Amino acid sequence: MWKHLRDKIQAIINATNLFQQIYTYESAEFGGDPVCTITASSESADYRTTTSNFRVYAFQIVAWVKRGSPRNEQEAEDLLAELVMG
Questions:
Q1: d(CA 42, CA 59)
Q2: Helices assigned H by DSSP within the chain
Q3: Distance CA 63, CA 66 (A)
Q4: pLDDT tens digits for 23-70?
Q5: How far apart, in whole angstroms, are the C-alpha atoms of residue 84 and residue 81?
Q6: Is residue 62 a contact partner of residue 36, using CB atoms and an 8 Å limit?
């Protein structure tokens, strides 16, 4: 289930065309700017009855931008806010 949900989230983010790369794992180095990472965060389940089971799958989505070059600190912060807030 995790992979299926992660792939759907990746497709939705990819459709925005805001990121040069989308990683479904935490990478030590990025091949673009800006990029985002999608990682599994937590899972919980509540088994009430056979017909009303409840599951929550949480993901952490992080936007990454380079600071310094090619943009200064303020430009990087503004871009990050634009990516997250839309």
A1: 7
A2: 2-15, 73-85
A3: 10
A4: 999 998 999 999 999 999 987 877 767 677 788 889 999 999 998 878
A5: 5
A6: yes
